[in-house]
Request: fold
Amino acid sequence: MDKLTFDFHKPFRLQAATNSGKNVCGTCSSCRGCRSCDYDCKSNRSQNEPQDPGEDGSEFYIQWHITHRCTQQCKHCYGETGLELGDNDLLRIAEKLLTFVETCDRKLLVVLTGGEPLLRPETVIRLVKSLGATVRCELLSTGHPLHSSPDLLPRLKALQTLKRIQFSLDGPRSVHDAIRSPGSFDSTLQALKLVGDAGFETALMMTLSKRNAASIVEVHEIANDLWGNARKRLGFDRFTPCGQSATKEETSQVCTKEEFKAACEAALAWRAKHGWGNNGMFRPLHCLLDPEAGAACSVGISGLTIMPDGVVYPCRRLPVSLGNALHDDLLELWLENSFLNKMRNPTSVAACVSCQHLHICRGCRAAAYAMSGDAFGSDPHCWQASS
Ligand SMILES: C[S@@+](CC[C@H](N)C(=O)[O-])C[C@H]1O[C@@H](n2cnc3c(N)ncnc32)[C@H](O)[C@@H]1O
Ligand code: SF4
Ligand code: SF4
Reply:
């Protein structure tokens, strides 16, 4: 098939720019690295923060959950049980992804995760190899399996395209271990040192709930002590009740607007003082604190999630089935799916239509879905919406 020359985020941004009266260049997927734009986000970044090749919007992002299995039982986790495709089916999906991005004239970033992806180490290695030399790959892992399989890290390092490994850090030792499991904090930091020493780029992610929102500065301090002047990436995102954590008890652990806002403010203040950190600022709602730091999410624009059975979701936290990556035509799914098309329409979220931040925000659709059942409802944490 001939290459297509569409650019979904361009119409979205240009329409939104017209509405807002802002000058938005419309060339990037998450409003970073702009040229002739009112939101010159690059000016907000420090030299210690890795600039990803995909930040110009040329990469399509696949978050690929290859297993539900895990050694931990984190309280907030969306983890479920169910069918897990075998390697041959996963390799078939990898082939289809390559054809898809070739047709769309995009590069591909594949983030392998779970569950714990390193419980399927041979699958990780086969998949990364099968994706070839041009696809950037990352892992989201606990790192724990690296301790019991010392030969695994050099085998991962031999994969030229596996560039970055991200772990979770949900607080100082007592907070992190209470959310995750006893010993998890120390195991994670040891694994972080191992992969850093092996030459991987490393990243930490904090999942924010009532259990740990007050620890956000401490997490930054721990990361700072660990990394020193090395290249670093630290993000945080909101706990979104879904999968096995969509219970009344867990939902009561979602931060209030005020708690979330306070955590964002603390992270932003830390960033201003230290000159790095908090890459998670480039997310919906963060524009309310710093218009240069906001970014609309990639759902419907430049990314999809694949589940262990091949089911495709817009995002792991937005469990609306769009089809199956093994059985369906990916290009048709991407172009024709009515849910994705609604996501691309800037007027789909009534609560955001007249907001000045629409083109760099429109809230988190997964959070709206989790808290109201309506993916196009208002973001439950938007503190502007109530004012
Ligand atoms: C599913 S885990 C997979 C990688 C690895 N097991 C880990 O915990 O880092 C990836 C990230 O998703 C986060 N996560 C899990 N369930 C979540 C939920 N319901 N809402 C928001 N984030 C969630 C985890 O805290 C972790 O940072
Ligand atoms: S958040 Fe990660 S480590 Fe925790 S149970 Fe879920 S998949 Fe496992
Ligand atoms: S109203 Fe919508 S676009 Fe505006 S800040 Fe709130 S969530 Fe973002």
